[in-house]
Design goal:
The chain has 378 residues and is an all-alpha fold. It has 14 helices and three strands. The protein starts with a helix and ends in a 19-residue tail after the last helix.
Length: 378
């Protein structure tokens, strides 16, 4: 029954993005391998590709298994998982390892785990469940409770610091509030508070102020350091023109930092052209639109909120990454869903997609009328 109930088009789009990601990582791997090699350690040119192939091989079964779970089981596991990874997020300052000035990972030797990546889909599902309880009892203060939990997550993320992930959590929470029926006055107040929060972050949060200043008003020193990534991303993205230089033909990518992760969209632009970038952006848009259109007649409040929140997460994360690559936003350290290199990101996104597929499953025969007239030729 799973094959007939699952949204096969949505599943196909996710698998297609993973396939595109493998090709993109293969294109970016030589550049990153050369950048991280030195006189004592030479990395194989396809090092990141082979590792990403392993992560995809692990992630695809995870996505299928999660998508087959009954809704109630998936919800319970998401609630338990959210508690575990929220605890790990709180423990990061004590047990985390520092990379590029940020403490976002727990180093297990053979691999690193990023709790915030796993927390995203599980926390969104948990928030959706809490907000869905208002459908049975509107007096429940779930808006305040979910807002408080989101604020706690935001504070823990800002301590890392990780402003990009904070934006994703906050934006998805606001979207879920709007869908759950929050008043226009409350939504307006939230947008006002968000604006005030950005101003406060600029005034009192050094990381945010430096990023904003270097993006909007770059000094000569910033142009050489902080603006370098943005400028090189734009140069790499536009170097291939409309159709690209061809696989392995890119040269500008060798000067691009984090070509296999944060700036992989630019590598796609150089080697496969702006047309390929447009196809990728269209795939993300089609994925989000398909989910929202499918939810128009959804009667279960939890499935409606959970699926909408997960789809919004994919869309927001992809938009932030592409905005950074095109120079429309400062660097955020945000991966491109299913395409960027990374084990934590790939497995966590696969869990999220599995949950999304589980919550959008429909029995095609459930509402079919038994009284449908079938005409027969005489």
């Amino acid at each position: 029954m799973w094959f007939w109930e699952v949204d096969r088009v949505l599943l196909l789009m996710a698998l297609l993005l993973m396939a595109i990601g493998l090709v993109a990582v293969a294109a970016a791997s030589p550049a990153s391998a050369r950048r991280y090699s030195d006189a004592t350690h030479q990395m194989a040119s396809m090092y990141y590709f082979w590792r990403q192939l392993v992560w995809v091989a692990v992630s695809v079964p995870v996505m299928f298994i999660v998508s087959m779970m009954p809704v109630a089981v998936a919800r319970r596991l998401a609630l338990a998982g959210a508690g575990v990874f929220l605890l790990l997020l709180a423990l990061l300052p004590f047990i985390g390892s520092e990379v590029n000035g940020s403490v976002r990972w727990i180093d297990f030797g053979v691999a690193e785990l990023q709790p915030s990546e796993f927390l995203k889909p599980l926390f969104i599902t948990s928030i959706a469940w809490m907000l869905s309880l208002r459908a049975a009892d509107p007096a429940l203060p779930m808006q305040w409770i979910t807002g408080g939990l989101t604020a706690v997550v935001g504070v823990l993320l800002m301590l890392q610091p990780d402003f990009g992930q904070t934006m994703v959590f906050g934006a998805v929470w606001v979207i879920l509030l709007m869908i759950s029926g929050a008043s226009p006055l409350a939504i307006g107040g939230l947008f006002g508070s968000a604006l005030g929060g950005v101003v406060a972050a600029y005034l009192f949060y050094d990381t945010a102020r430096i990023r904003i200043d270097n993006f909007l008003f770059p000094s000569k020193e910033a142009a050489l350091v902080d603006r370098y990534q943005i400028d090189m991303a734009h140069a790499t993205l536009s170097a291939g023109g409309f159709f690209g230089t061809g696989p392995g033909g890119g040269t500008v990518k060798f000067r691009l930092p984090e070509a296999h992760t944060d700036y992989i969209f630019s590598v796609v632009g150089e080697e496969f052209g702006l047309l390929a970038c447009a196809v990728i952006a269209t795939l993300y848009l089609a994925m989000v639109l398909r989910v929202f259109l499918k939810l128009i007649d959804e009667e279960d409040a939890f499935k409606l909120l959970a699926a909408a929140g997960l789809a919004a997460q994919f869309g927001i994360q992809a938009t932030i990454n592409m905005a950074v690559n095109t120079g429309l936003a400062p660097s955020k350290g945000m991966t491109l869903p299913f395409i960027s290199y990374g084990g934590s990101s790939m497995i966590a996104l696969s869990i999220g997609m599995g949950l999304l597929l589980a919550f959008t499953r429909r029995n095609p025969y459930l509402k079919r009328s038994p009284y449908t007239v079938r005409w027969k030729a005489s």
